[in-house]
Design brief:
With about 300 residues, the chain is an alpha+beta fold. The chain is built from 7 helices and 14 strands. Strands 1, 2, 3, 4, 5, 6, 7, 8, 9, 10, 11, 12, 13 and 14 form a 14-stranded mixed sheet that branches. The longest helix is centred in the middle third of the chain and has 15 residues. It starts with 9 loop residues before the first strand and ends in a 6-residue tail after the last strand.
């Protein structure tokens, strides 16, 4: 079998789209409608890296402009997410995934995105990317799980309601102040809204009495609900937010992904969440001096 050195990464072209969609469907098993939505929303040939097997693309990585990486000192750096890194099953083990990842990361930094990020699909891939690319572990999160029986009564003070992407972005900026975080732009939030609404949820604001005290991206499945992101002001509890959501989305099990600086219920587990390429002149953000700062990747379109 040919190795990736024999087929160098290249930029995609518009005529690649049918075969890129076929590769996406083979690897991720998404519906045609969802694949079309992504390509209509984000596809740009100059921001897509592919490798051919001689006749068609068999590996691809997409560079998505997502907004800014905001550092705790207020510095804002244009940020791009590497997304949907895919290699045809028949070509795995050839180094194609490594090659398109490295090429896409470097292309992002060369085309106006000093911050390039990615979320590995599973925990074991952190080591893969650290060994085979310039990406390094950076973003973290806590994950908590609650059964419906464990939730307190929500009462009448807490409630959730859907919000538009523009409002959701303002709420994220408010509740993530002081963190290192990806300030996702409205296009990204609208894409996340599409994905979450397809999964029975959406973008929500959490209200306590007359005050908005949090926001969340929620998806609903068979007998379970997942908070893809839950952000709260300091004095409000995770359990109260989940209980409020349960009134709208009843389920047997609730899973919450939250910023690592939040309260840590007994059943909460720390997890590494995302990776960042080193930023020239800002190597210190990977050092021990920044450990106490929450580093929030947030929404990953997964």
């Amino acid at each position: 079998m040919m190795q990736y050195q024999d087929y160098l990464p290249r930029l995609a072209a518009h005529q690649d789209v049918p075969r890129l969609k076929a590769l996406w469907k083979t690897v991720f098993c998404d519906s045609d409608a969802d694949i079309d939505y992504f390509f209509n929303t984000y596809f740009s040939p100059e921001r897509t890296v592919v490798i051919d097997d001689g006749t068609k693309p068999v590996s691809a990585a997409y560079i998505l402009p997502t907004g800014d990486l905001v550092l705790p000192d207020g510095t804002r750096l244009s940020c791009a997410m590497l997304y949907a890194i895919a290699t045809h099953p028949e070509c795995r083990g050839s180094g194609y995934g490594e090659a398109v990842t490295r090429a896409a990361g470097r292309l992002a930094s060369q085309t106006g995105f000093p911050a390039a990020v990615l979320k590995p699909a599973e925990d074991g891939l952190f080591a893969f990317y650290e060994k085979r690319s310039e990406f390094r572990e950076f973003f973290t999160a806590f994950e908590a799980r609650f059964t419906a029986a464990e939730l307190p009564p929500s009462g009448s003070l807490y409630a959730i309601a859907p919000v538009f992407p523009s409002e959701y972005r303002r709420l994220r900026q408010r509740f993530l102040k002081g963190c290192a975080y990806i300030d996702m732009d409205e296009r990204g939030l609208a894409y996340q809204q599409y994905l979450s609404e397809k999964a029975g949820g959406g973008l929500y604001a959490l209200r306590f009495a007359d005050d908005i005290c949090g926001c969340a991206v929620i998806e609903s499945g068979d007998h379970s609900v997942i908070f893809k992101e839950l952000l709260l002001s300091g004095r409000h509890r995770m359990l109260d937010a989940v209980s409020a959501a349960a009134q709208l989305l009843p389920a047997d099990l609730y899973t919450v992904i939250a910023v690592s600086g939040y309260e840590k219920p007994e059943k909460t587990a720390f997890q590494r969440f995302g990776m960042l390429m080193p930023i020239p002149g800002r190597e210190e953000i990977f050092g021990t001096s920044s450990v106490q700062c929450a580093k929030w990747y947030g929404l990953a379109f997964d």
